[in-house]
Structure formats: C-alpha cells, structure tokens
Amino acid sequence: MTQDGFSYAFDPSACVSCGGNCCTGESGNIFVSVTEIAAIAKLLEMDEGEFRRTFLRKVVYRYSLKEKVVNGSHDCAFFDRKANGCSIYQARPLQCRTFPFWDYFRHRVDELKAECPGIINE
Ligand code: SF4
Ligand code: SF4
Q1: Around Cβ 119, how many Cβ atoms within 10 Å?
Q2: Is pLDDT above 90 for 121?
Q3: pLDDT, tens digit, 9 for 90 and up, residues 84-102
Q4: Is the minimum distance from the CB of 37 to ligand 2 under 6 angstroms?
Q5: Residue ranges of the domains in the chain?
Q6: Are the beta carbons of 30 and 91 closer than 8 angstroms?
C-alpha cells in the first residue's frame, strides 16, 4: 500500500504478528471528531453522554480516546489484546485509518519503522 507524497509503503499483513504497536506503548492522543464520537457511541450502543464521560478526555479544545495502562503500556481503551485488534474497527477515528501515512512521519521514516514493522522503504 502506498500513498502519494510518501517515500515508504505499508504492508498490512504485518499487523497480524505485530501486537498493535500503534495502539499501545507510549501515551499519546487519539483524537476524535464530533461525528466520530457519535459513530463510536452508536456502534457501542451507548448513550453519547455516557460514552463521552467513560471514554474521552479533553485535550485543550479537542477530545482524545482514553488509555488504559496494561503492564506499563498505555493501550488505547479500545485495543483488545486477546483479539490483537481494535474493538471499534468499523468506527475507528480518521487518525487511526490514516496511519502510517501521517504528515508527522513523512520525514521521520526511521522513527516510524521502529514502531511499525509493516513499513517498507520504496
Ligand atoms: S504498528 Fe504497523 S504493523 Fe503494527 S498494528 Fe500498527 S499498522 Fe499494523
Ligand atoms: S481506536 Fe482502535 S485503531 Fe485507533 S488506537 Fe484505538 S484500538 Fe487502535
């Protein structure tokens, strides 16, 4: 998988054995829009207010999914270690859908390769 403007390719088959490096590890923000919040709450069949209180934290003027600490790792609240995947996959936020083709990594390929075993240099 490639994307215009990026010097690397991505092989999604690496996700099977990776253990979700992009959903675990160091603490970070997983930003969600108002539309995405509504979609995730609907998928979980939760009241939107309850979903916000349970799973979101405010970061300045935006909202991020909360994390849970597992063996010292900051896992996204929706990463399922047993299933090795995202438990809200159909409604995962754009930030997750667009990984690993983020502007941040455009010129930081070594940093990205250290995190994601699916990165292939073109
Ligand atoms: S870090 Fe890369 S290989 Fe691992 S789960 Fe995320 S996208 Fe897949
Ligand atoms: S929402 Fe899903 S894909 Fe995104 S960080 Fe959380 S577990 Fe990973």
Answers
A1: 18
A2: no
A3: 999 999 999 999 999 999 9
A4: no
A5: 8-121
A6: no
Mean pLDDT within 40-55? 98
> Which residue puts its alpha carbon closest to atom 4 of ligand 2?
96
Q: Where do runs of H (alpha helix) occur along the chain? A: 15-18, 34-43, 48-55, 94-97, 103-106, 109-115
Q: Note the ligand closest to the C-alpha atom of 27.
A: 2
> 67 has which bridge partners?
76
Q: How sure is the predictor about 5, in pLDDT bands with cuts at 50, 70 and 90? A: very high
What average pLDDT does the structure give for the chain?
96
Ligand 1 centre distance from Cα of residue 49 (Å): 31
Q: Which of 92, 91, 90 is nearest to 23 (CA)?
A: 92
